Structure to design on (185 residues):
């Protein structure tokens, strides 16, 4: 499988049945992807996490309008996709030259989704987003560790960058990332 994915010019990902919420989540990732990559790299480079437990901090800290409830719900829907929880997707993303998610009539680079997940985690905005949506849904179904795969999407992206070596967009900060965290002897 590694030869197949390594030799593919593009790998296309399907996250599931299209919905308005999924579409909105992908649009948000597209909109904030470049900023998310820049801010994620800055945080890793400084080795100091930003802690933004309120969406209201977004404008002051990052120049982004705070996510509205529907946008937060779109991001949660995106990262609730079962695709992110599958172990074998690591090779699909990490080894391919280009990885894109297709939805409706559009295609979005996985790198923007992975950068968005990294940004949400490193800024703690993942907690603000999932808390807002959990309260709005009123059912405690939004569990950022089990049901919302933001951290898995981040890990997949960082592993992708490591596998890209000299072609990585994150080359300058890769030595600062502990890829062994969570691995037991």
């Amino acid at each position: 499988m590694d030869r197949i994915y390594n030799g593919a010019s593009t790998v296309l990902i399907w996250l599931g049945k299209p919905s308005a919420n999924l579409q909105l989540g992908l649009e948000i990732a597209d909109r904030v992807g470049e900023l998310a990559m820049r801010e994620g790299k800055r945080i890793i480079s400084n080795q100091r996490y930003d802690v933004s437990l309120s969406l209201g901090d977004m404008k002051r800290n990052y120049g982004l309008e705070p996510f509205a409830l529907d946008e937060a719900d779109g991001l949660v829907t995106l990262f609730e996709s079962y695709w992110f929880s599958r172990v074998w997707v690591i090779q699909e993303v990490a080894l391919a030259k280009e990885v894109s998610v297709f939805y409706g009539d559009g295609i979005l680079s996985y790198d923007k989704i992975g950068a968005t997940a990294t940004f949400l985690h490193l800024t703690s905005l993942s907690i603000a987003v999932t808390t807002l949506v959990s309260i709005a849904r009123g059912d405690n179904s939004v569990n950022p560790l089990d049901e919302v795969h933001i951290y898995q999407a981040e890990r997949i992206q960082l592993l992708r960058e490591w596998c890209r070596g000299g072609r990585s967009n994150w080359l300058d900060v890769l030595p600062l990332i502990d890829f062994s965290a969570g691995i037991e002897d």
Q: What stands out?
A: The chain has a mean pLDDT of 89.
